Amino acid sequence: MKEDSYNTKLSLNQQPAGSQQMCRTTEEDAPAVDHHVDMSSSTSDDLNFIPPLNFAMVDNGIFRSGFPDSANFSFLQTLKLTSIIYLCPEPYPEANTEFLKSNGIKLFQFGIESYKEPFVNIPEDTIREALRLVLDVRNHPVLIHCNRGKHRTGCLVGCLRKLQRWCLSSVFDEYQRFAAAKARVSDQRFMELFDRRMLGPA
After folding, report:
1. Considering 146, 155, 159, 167, which one is annotated as catalytic?
2. Which of 7, 14, 80, 176 holds its CA 20 to 30 A away from the CA of 102?
3. Residue ranges of the Tyrosine-protein phosphatase domain (predicted)?
């Protein structure tokens, strides 16, 4: 399937550097936000810019992390986010919701339950739905996060990498870098069997 069918600017040859519910979306009326990120200036205020746990850039306009808290809000503002993809079923905290409202950020929530092996159930349909949002450049810049930024986020990013035609060893290397000692064979098996051809047009 051609890249254009996904309406995405993702690189297909880039090298490397998890009970479901329907997606819930919240969007607050807010002024338009300039999405250009200017990271050129460096002042003492930069010391207050604390990224969330396991934060990293995935691709142009796509970021990943663990659950952000109020200490991370100043840092997140520098990303000029358009949307957040939240992969947990728990309600978003009030402080985070207010942050989204004040910054004009849309929240897409996918209620993927947290499991421990061997009782792992990764909802493939939910992953596909979330991927369509990630691929839509209208949602960029976007932050993908779960609780710790390891398993659910790792599975979603791993499936994205398959769409980018990464080899499995590179997909697994990236997953393991974030999951570390908590890496799950079931997650990696899910990514291995994920069929990018079944995603379909957005």
Report:
1. 146
2. 7
3. 54-202
